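Supplementary Methods, section 5.1.

A reviewer requested that the exact input to the structure prediction be made available. We therefore reproduce it here, unchanged from the version used in the analyses.
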Amino acid sequence: MSDSSSPDSPASAAPSSALTRRGVLRAGGALVAAGVGVAAASVAPAAAESVPFAHGVASGDPLPDGVLVWTRVTPVPQAQPGTGAGPEVTVHWDVARDEAFSDVVARGSVRTGAHRDHTVKVDVTGLEPATAYWYRFRYGSDTSPVGRTRTAPAVGAAVERLRFGVVSCSDWQAGHFAAYRHLAERDDLDLVVHLGDYLYEYGVPSDGSPVRPHDPEVEMTTLAHYRRRHAQYKTDPHLAALHARVPFVVTWDDHESANDAWAGGAENHTEPDEGTWEERRAASQQAYAEWMPVRYEPGGHLYRRLTFGTLAELSMLDLRSHRSRQVAHPFDRGIHDPDRTIAGRDQLGWLTDGLVTAGAQWKLVGNSVMIAPVQFPSTLTTREFHALTELVGPIEGVPYNVDQWDGYTHDRATVFRTLRDHGVRDTVFLTGDIHSAWACELPANPLTYPLTRDSVGVELVCTSVTSDNLDEILRVPPRTASLAVETAIRVANPHVKHLDFDSHGFSVLDVTPSAVQMDWYALRDRTDPATEARHSVSYVVRAGTQRVTRTREALR
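The structure derived from this sequence is encoded token-by-token as follows.
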């Protein structure tokens, strides 16, 4: 047994001024049953303010010899998220081979306080590869919910199978997170990949009633706002159950800060009314570092690579912090400007070098916005066109979404050229953002692809957990107007093999030496926390093919 203490890497910004928390939040702790199901632990009738571990536990970024574990402690009722109030305290942590903690393999203590919103993040080392562990936190006489996690396989180990949950775009106000519940009820996941828009910055809309309102009710622009919003999301019982069940690997997209963010600003940021972008971005990044189970602290970089034996490498991208500003419209020749970038030069070099030198078979890329080229057909009606702009941003009636890689064609060409010229095989981009499900091949040359079918990789896009799809934007029943739009887009883009604009839910990715397969699952009703999920469709990428084809067999 080791007895180590891991420092918390406290953020450097000063605590924000106190704000009164609106309402009482339910605690969403999750208890992990030994080897099987998940039970959400209710804390009623006590209010969340009186529960020291009201925001659950989580783990992330598994390595062969370690994993990061997370919690948040409320040492006194006044120490609510975002208030900057409350004493500095010591929190103890334990990691064991069993849920009863009869075989503790690592333990330690860490100081936390208002300077990091009383969050606790510990990078536990000295663990065995490919091993399940249980972890907990203790403060005074109180013990947190128990979490279960798993380390990655050993470097160079032959791995027969990996299975990931894949999710993105979870808007609290749009529905309940039943997708997370369905993933938490599974017992076959090695980790969950969250591809961004883990939370949304928007305030409570004045033109309608949300399924459940955001806290705070205003758009988040300050450190206190971002902390409170993160705290609210962590009280969702389904998300808490999943965090307690499986380690997460995360990246951000734009809504963790503001819509359509770029290095120097965002579409949804107005100066001076909302302060400077530098201040707002710093606040969002500090809260993200505090509240997410990720190896990231402000001032570092979020992009990173995790290895799973010889079977797979997972490269997680950050496509917001380093990108050039989006061009105003797709007619702008700036989309082809080699001086404009979506990834930043350092990250782009890191990505392409890693693809070429990868020691694992499957090169998986966690990608927050679509990389496959997409042309929007001229046959769309005005209503359909305007609805699509709600999903993908201003396309101005021509064939590009300038917020995706389509608006930064030089960076995309660099990636595709690297894959082609170096003969890199078995590359799969895992993508979120666009609130729809896609299965695409990545054409080496879009102009000749219809004849050659020359593909350098594959992109699999998960749909949203709750965020609006095309049917909600058009205010029509599912699978009505969207069918014609999907057909038109596939005709205009023959490398797009599957498209679903209406479903909400989650995906499950299975990785073996012979194939990568994604199964999409659709929720019956995003507004119902007890809703069912059904298998929607499955697509498979056979090793060595760079092609994606439909299969009717879901994973078992």
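Confidence is low (pLDDT under 50) at residues 1-47, 395-399. These observations are discussed further in the main text.
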